[in-house]
Amino acid sequence: MRSKKGLKALTGGVALALSSLVATLPASAASKSATTTVSCDGTTVKNLVQVNHVTQGTFSIKANSASQDSITNFSAESHTTGNSLSWKAADEGQTATWNSVLVAVYTGKAKRVGNKNCNGSAPGHGNYTLNYTITYNG
Amino acid sequence: MNRIWRTALVIALGTAGVAGCRGGSSVPAADDKIFEGLDPEVVAEVLAFPHARQSIGEKDERAVRDGLAQGMVRNFIVCRDAHRVYTAWVNTGSPPQLAANPVPANPVEPASTGFADYYAQLSTAVKSGEIDNLRFWLTAEGGCGQWIPAEPDEPEGPTIKDVIEGRS
Predict the structure, then answer these.
(1) ipTM of the assembly?
(2) Could you give phi then psi for residue A120, rounded to 5 degrees?
(3) Cα–Cα distance between B124 and B140 in angstroms, integer?
(4) B58 — contact with chain A (CB < 8 Å)?
(5) Which distant-in-sequence residues (6+ apart) come within 8 Å of A43 by Cβ?
(6) What does the alpha-carbon distance between residue A65 and residue A27 come to, in Å, rounded to a whole number?
(7) Which one, out of A45, A100, A123, B161, has a CA that is 20 to 30 A from the CA of B89?
(8) Is A135 helix (H, G, I), strand (E, B) or coil?
(9) pLDDT tens profile A33-65
(10) Torsion sign, CA atoms B2, B8, B13, B14
């Protein structure tokens, strides 16, 4: 039969091993997909979905599809601090990726690279349809 | 007034009315109650900073706009103080104490609670005893040093990240 001291040491060791395991477990990648419209004027910023990036690590936004032959500039911003990720462009099927991103609740942002008349003879630049996926540490 | 012009006027007034109901996309004034309890000089600096004005002005919902404006002011205060701690740490080999989290008299939620978590991350980086953790917090993607000017009177000057990485 184990002594109380031995049992205590064993329990402590198991707790330490478990805490080490938790500390070294990779964060689980989560993702959110959505479809939105983005202005073709090249300047108007469209807010995308909000995600909670809970551990430091890779953050990415993929342009799954974009109508009107559009390349999209992506970023993400914390509405708590104003801190944001640098703008990165992604063509249809491409992914904008940021490494070692700090923990925060981020709202994705998108704007067209350059302006284009997506509206034919109607007034204004018009919009294009963007389907995207944000991948983060959820 | 012919029918076409009358129709155009009705549409224009209707559009203006809708914009008014949405609250528009404006930046809060320096004397807004959301800034009570925060350093008025930093409030003035943030409200005059083009990047901040644009970002705040893009938000349609007033709660988001107010929370962001208040958070940006707190972020300028905290980020500059973190830079002060970092510089002293480099020069002396040990970090001085971090200033307290600046708390406004009228916190806007949920941004204010989020800011407490943000400040806790900074505090943890300083208490870690590893200067690289604080450097990373200041310079990483999503970090405040990427966009906040190192000096209050130089909005076009180097950012805190520029200074830390020797680009100033």
Answers:
(1) 0.82
(2) 60, -130
(3) 16
(4) yes
(5) A111, A115
(6) 28
(7) A100
(8) strand
(9) 999 999 999 999 999 999 999 999 999 999 999
(10) positive
Contact criterion met (CB < 8 Å) for A78 and B64: no
Count other Cβ atoms within 10 Å, centred on residue B38.
Answer: 19
**Model pTM?**
0.81
Are A109 and A115 spatial neighbours (Cβ–Cβ below 8 Å)?
Answer: no
Touching A: B residues 71-130, CB under 8 Å: 71-72, 74-75, 111, 114-115, 118, 121
| Residue position matching structure tokens 């342009």 | A63
**Is it true that the peptide bond before B155 is cis, omega within 30 degrees of 0?**
no
Q: Amino acid identity of A130? A: L
Contact (CB, 8 A) for A103 and A126: no
Joined together, the tokens standing for residue B160 give 């805190």
